[in-house]
């Protein structure tokens, strides 16, 4: 499972569906003020300065 798949699976597991939907929109449209994505499909949360999988509790509480 890729990091991107882990990110989406965690966010869409019901704990934070609105953020998961915004993240999917970001991936499809490549525009978002909060997130950036690198060539390895790692998603970076610019607000909290963490990669999405590093501090899942922070994303769950967003």
Automatic annotation (TrEMBL):
Q: Which domain of life is it from?
A: Bacteria
What UniProt keywords apply to this chain's record, in alphabetical order? Transferase
List, in alphabetical order, the Gene Ontology terms for molecular function in this entry.
transferase activity
Q: What is this protein identified as?
A: Motility associated factor glycosyltransferase family protein
């Amino acid at each position: 499972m890729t990091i991107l798949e882990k990110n989406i699976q965690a966010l869409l597991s019901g704990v934070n569906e609105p953020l998961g939907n915004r993240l999917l929109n970001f991936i499809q449209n490549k525009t978002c003020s909060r997130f950036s994505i690198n060539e390895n499909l790692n998603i970076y949360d610019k607000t909290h300065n963490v990669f999405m999988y590093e501090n899942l509790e922070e994303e769950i509480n967003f």
